[in-house]
Design a protein that fits this description.
With 308 residues, this protein is mostly beta strands. It folds into two domains: 27-163, Immunoglobulins (Immunoglobulin-like, Sandwich); 173-287, Immunoglobulin-like (Sandwich). The protein is 13% helix and 49% strand. It has two helices and 19 strands. The protein has helices at residues 2-19, 287-307; strands at 31-34, 37-42, 47-56, 61-72, 79-81, 92-94, 103-107, 112-120, 128-144, 147-163, 173-181, 190-193, 199-206, 212-221, 227-232, 237-238, 243-246, 259-269, 276-285. The strands form four sheets. Strands 2, 4, 5, 7, 9 and 10 form a six-stranded mixed β-sheet that branches. A hairpin with a 2-residue loop joins strand 9 and strand 10. It is elongated. The chain starts with a helix and ends with a helix.
Length: 308
Amino acid sequence: MINRCKLLTTIVCISLYLSFYTPVQAQTVSLSIWPPILDVIIKPGKAVTQVFRFTNNGDNTTITASIVPFEPADNFGHVKLSSTPSPATAYFSLQNADLNLPATFALKAGESQELVLKIRVPDTAPEADHCLTFLFDSSNLGLIAGTGTKTQGSIGANVLLTVSKTGQPVRLAKIDSFTLSPCLFNLSPCLLDSFDQPQFKFLVKNTGRNRFKAVGQIDIRNTFNKKIATLGFRQDNVLANSSRYLTSDTTWNPVFPVGRYQATAAITPEDSTNTVSQTLTFLILPYKALLILGLFWFFFYLIKKLKN
């Protein structure tokens, strides 16, 4: 009887607690922007405008829009915001009548805002590349269990700006490295197993003052110098004074390859004729299978000899 009373008391307490429970009011941040990237070449003294459409897919929020420089973070195309001031930030302004950079405005859930970004390059601006981000910072205020909370998020559209007097900047490239894996003991020439998946790594360096899109491919030839495959590079941006690994949208999947092969990688910066190339020679043999067969034969021979 006592245990039954305790159980009844516990149920009543839980019911009272739930009746006074304050639900959690979570704030969500979901932002989108179009276009995600702006690539533009401007002569000194000229100007261009671009309309950006910003949409709030989350809860009511306050947006702060600004222009911030960025720089390469690694050799794989990742970037990071830079704390180093850029003189090019002064080239940017908003054409919206009620907004100036940096701009702060409220945006309700589901609403969109069009921002007309103007880039005007002064007559005295030097020829150079500028990497900047049209950055949007979101700040939401909400309640979680009756306590004030702040949810933040950011999204940006990258702006690749080239100031060129002729409108045709010189683009120069250099091959930093062209390798193949997995290589056995890093032998030269590279030795691969016939059952391995060949992985090419191609690192290109931008030796000029202006960014470029990498246009090129890897041509693979067999022992008889016959072209058997072509792997096209994805046309990624390589920023000035930086290096980047190029990737291919296709892979080489040969059926039990055996013999001597050559791979020639060639790259030409877009809108130029400055082609650079490098050739890699490698061997493919089923050495793992041969090693296993050799071990089996050795143990079979050893056992047979011991029996005799």
